[in-house]
Here is the input.
Amino acid sequence: MSALGHGALYGAVLIAVMLSTVAVGIWFERKFAGRMQSRLGPTIVGPMGLLQPLADVVKLLQKEDIIPAGADRALFNLAPILATIFSLGVAAVLPLSPRMIAADLDIGVVYMLAIGGLMVVPTFMAGWASNNKFALLGGMRAVAQSISYGVPLVLAVLVPVILSGSLSLAGIVRWQSEHHWFALWPVIPGLPAFALYFMAMLAEANRIPFDIPEAESELVAGVTTEYTGAKFTLFYLAEYVHTLVGSAIGAALFFGGWDGPFAPGLHWMVAKTLALFVVVYWVRWTLLRLRSDQLMELCWKWLTPIGVALVLFAAAWVQFAPQGAL
Amino acid sequence: MEMTEATLTMQSARRGRVDPHRSMRAYDADADLMLLHFGPQHPSTHGVFRMDLHLDGEIIVKATPYVGYLHRAVEKLCERLTYVQQTPVVDKNDYVSPMTNEQALTMAFEKLLGVEVPRRARWMRTLFAELQRIASHLLWLGTFALDLGGALGGGSTLFLHCFRERELILDLFEEVTGARFHYNTHLIGGNRHDLPAGFAPKVHAALAIIESRLAEYEVLSLDNGIFKMRSRGVGVLDGELALELGVTGPNLRASGVDHDLRRDAPYGAYDELAVNVVTAQGGDCFARTQVRFGELRESIRLARAAIDGMPEGPICGHKPIRQPGQAKATGGQVYVGIETPRGELGTFVVGGGDTPTCPYRLKIRPPSLHALSALPYILPGATVSDAVAILGSLDPIMGEADR
Here is the structure.
């Protein structure tokens, strides 16, 4: 099969898998949140409420599609589409198993950071085009947050890149399966780098405690205030996919991706991804939200210097560590 | 965040005193401030409350609160109803704490009409008031967490847990009065419903559960790093300004002013039950949370003491006042203030007029309105996120503020 055909086939499968995972993820999150809050979660639609995501989607799609008067129609309509494309686009370089990669780019890490960084464009587009002050405030916050947290994200991702000497996600995973997971060894740049990555990922995906662009108790619904129906659904979907892909990349970069005994690589990759995904939910339904200036302070005064230190340490480790320790 | 000169001036002025009536032109020389209509259809305005916020970036330069969206002409309605008909009407004023509304109104009528209340009825009212205070503070804690942490996040977790415990109190009230919320249990001269048999163990069981879970809520709020970051030094209301504005209740006590009507002007059973007044220093959102946590514990203690020491005897005067003709006033005026969960709820009644069975004039002094009046002073210099936290920390109930 040609490379193009291979990529297109895997891409289609990947999108289908992503979307169905998101559907199950929504059900799981609602059940999980329900249990955390001493209630039951969905129980009515289907057995154990399993069809609840379907009911949610049908409900959302039935809603009237409202474009506010005074909105910039072209940008307003484009923003949710771009958000979906960019969030799904990152999934192209996900190494699901040694042979299941839609596009095994040599510079997969750079591609991932670039496409993921573009997510801020549709968010601000939506905030600007809505012609709504709450949405505008949300968009402004989103720009500040995404650009700031891009820095610790890059620094955190650089640590496994330096340690493995590869810019390809599959290459990094391969190195880990031959040697050791970066979250386990070397502990000092590895584990803190993962923590840094996790926090930056939460901020990039607008998850609590960093969900400031759509802080619903302050900004009604932030950038999505004016969106209804299918377009709102797309934003919702993009956010979920962003979190899911972020968890998958975290699993690949720091927890050895497909590496694991007894089971096929794909199973290990999915299990690790979902485990991180659950942690995101867990954090979300436990913590309160930071204020935007505190968020910036955390980023620039703490995370970024720590990230720089970790990168330097990783470089020193590669240079000076004894042969056996690698 | 960039600080413009206007903002810095505002912040330095805040250390002295903000003048909320200053013209916008004093700030908006370049006309680049954004006017944000915050409410009345906003998820965090605790009902229907509106603020006009003038924003420099995200920093509030001037805030103008508007009340009245929930005005229901309760006072006028009370002037048209006979004395015995009014408890169900005022139940809906402070819709988080109906018991204390009834108590305030009934006590004012009793004072006007010169009616004695039996000792058991006074103790029961005190028990109800303390249980209601627990329920009200729990609801406040939950909604404050919602304001800080969002309806789709950790905030709602704390919120729903607080609601779970509040249910226990509502169940107790339901057992006594038959109603979960709008009780109509206060009569002029006593109480309508007596405590059912075996009520004391149920109160103790519910209070034990609530007390054991308060520690968990403290971990989620007062001990939580993010909560501290969001509430420390936010919305500082100094005691002097609070006294000038007539702010009462936990908001005043959080500013370090030791004032509580339960101790300073005892009513009900408080002449026999000593109240340890909880105060905190700082006057910020954190101090207001500390005070309310302290009051939760104190109310649990008082409710236990009230149910344990509940005297035997009649719950109403020898002839219950239920007919309009039994309650007549030809004149006179009284003011009665009681300490509700939100502060001093005052009722001023003038008797007489054309119909002696109705009050000539009735005025309610709602603590929420006075708490809201502090907003234009403490909001400038804060951000939009802080505005939500500050508004929530003052615990305003619009049904009471607008009446």
Observations:
- Chain B touches chain A at residues 1, 34, 36, 42-44, 58, 145-157, 160-161, 164, 220, 224, 226-227, 229-230, 383-388 (CB under 8 Å).
